[in-house]
Amino acid sequence: MKKFYLSLVALLATTHMFAQGWPAKYDGVMLQGFYWDSYRDSKWTNLESQADELSQYFKLVWIPQSAYCGGKSMGYNDLYWFSNYNSSFGTESELRSLIKTFKSHGIGTIADVVINHRNTLTSYFDFPEETYKGVTYKMYPTDVCANDDKGETKKWADANGYTLSSNNDSGEGWDTMRDLDHYSSNVQTVVKAYLNMLLKDFGYAGFRYDMVKGYDGKFTGIYNDATKPTYSVGEYWDGNAETVKKWLDATKINDQIMSAVFDFPIRYSVRDAINNNWNTNINGGIATDNTYKQYAVTFVENHDTQYRSSSEPNDPIKKDTLAANALILATSGTPCVFYKHWLAYKKDIKMMINARKVAGITNNSATTLNSYNGTNYRAVTTTGSNTSLLAVMGPGAKNFTTTAYQEIISGYHYRYFLPKRAKIAWVDLPSGDYEEEQKAKLIAVSNNSGAKLVYTTDGTTPTASSIQVASGTELNIPFGKTTLKVGLLSSGTVSSIITREYNINKPEPFVPYDITVYVNADKLGWTNGINFWAWEDASSENLTASKAWPGDLVTQSKTINGKKWYYQTYNIKDRNYMVSFVFSHNNGEKTIPQTDDVTDITKDTYLEIQDTPKSDAAQKYYDVVNVTDQVLSGIADAPIIDNTTTKDNAWYTLSGMKMTQKPSQAGIYIHQGKKVVIR
User: Is the pLDDT of residue 13 over 50?
Assistant: First the structure.
């Protein structure tokens, strides 16, 4: 009986361990894999293609809400939960492939979960009816808070014969969409089923809960206790640390906190320090509170604080972005790096994460804020499982001096140091792919001022007889693949061997090229031309002659395989240039349906407009199907050549990439100014 009792206790302990909202002593870093309107950069296929690189630095990637929202959307007007995952970022199959690939690389995918409010199809209470694994899920007017939309919803409901919930909102309201009553048993049933599906069917590792101020914190605890995600973080948008801690306490089940939370308090403190040129002490927020730091997810910026436009300036870090990242990556809690910062400062952020790993910093590590203060700088010191890491931030960081620490990284307004007693070999250049020759600085972190380093570049383990260099030596990393291994040499013994993998490429010069986009609207009877509204996202370039909606009326056409194709030619100016479209008829009036967005075209493309308009959007619009492969396979006059033929002339893909040799893979290529089919 005693043995059974102990086994039961162990089982219960394990259950509650997995029900916790964030692991203790967690050493990972999270990436927010999107920014506002990042429809191109955050495509599921684009994120998946980066798995090799991301896995070296991040254990978690948070992606946008992934279901269809009725049109182009970042996902916060959530509509479908169970049945439609063809979103603005890709198809359901692409999403599943992304999650699977990330998992195989050791990356957990975090779902953006929006359950405070929900959108409807056409009217106030027209929630989608969805069937998943034989069970039908639907929400009703009685699932909507009694005081939704400041009472406007109730006015409409009363006028149209509907009854709302008798409960008022348990948190802050969200206008224009329906605030869900989480006291409703139906809401709880649907939410739990939805979360279980994300975890067990799609394979998400956990959740980022949107706008948790909108409903009582206990419901996050209830949902996580029911579904048991490994990771959960709530967006409790508040700069008051005590208020944020109260929310964490509200999530408790059996006295156990059930979710992490974004550390807005430390974010605002860092912003204020930056605005005062780092002459203001940094407040700890959640990340340095011993009771709560396990549940602190620190960040510098996100999609809500970033600058979007002159009409939405929001609250970005206006300067010292790198220094702000240096602080959170050298501090306890779990850092979350903003995707825009990752794209802009990849090399620096990689170095910071490498330093965090070397020190062995986790979310439970001990951090001392303001450990060194001076004019225009502040410092933090964090003790990891291996050694401590000292980070100095601010324009005055260059004036900071120390004899006990060795500098390993420096950048714009930040410096990283390790204690000399750590006895570590350091290489400042992170592993990765580069497009130009690189230099790697080798640094000996040692109390011995004359300490040497030994290294190899062929992947072999360095020994005392390998090439010896002094600390601070810079190595030229050549084109090609190099495995650099560096060790600290002391008294004839090599220790602390560090490895870096480099792939240095010299890209072929880009040659601008033209693409032609063909559009068929036979199904709609658009026979007198089609309006092409065209643009390029990254450069904010409008590609129409009129620069005004509905764009250019295109009347030039070709008949191919019995179909009429209206066409227009565009110039691809650089490697990242992509053309996007909306097509319409007549004057493009809102009463006349237009097409959905067709984005990121980089090659000759054939598009067919379908004749069934979307039925779940306020404005009707038509789907567009890419039929390029079908059309090209039916063109009889394309030259066909034998793949064994040898030519010395250059070959190009349809996207303009120059190939090193004649392609062996079947496809369509550009050669001697002509399109050539290789079969």
Answer: no
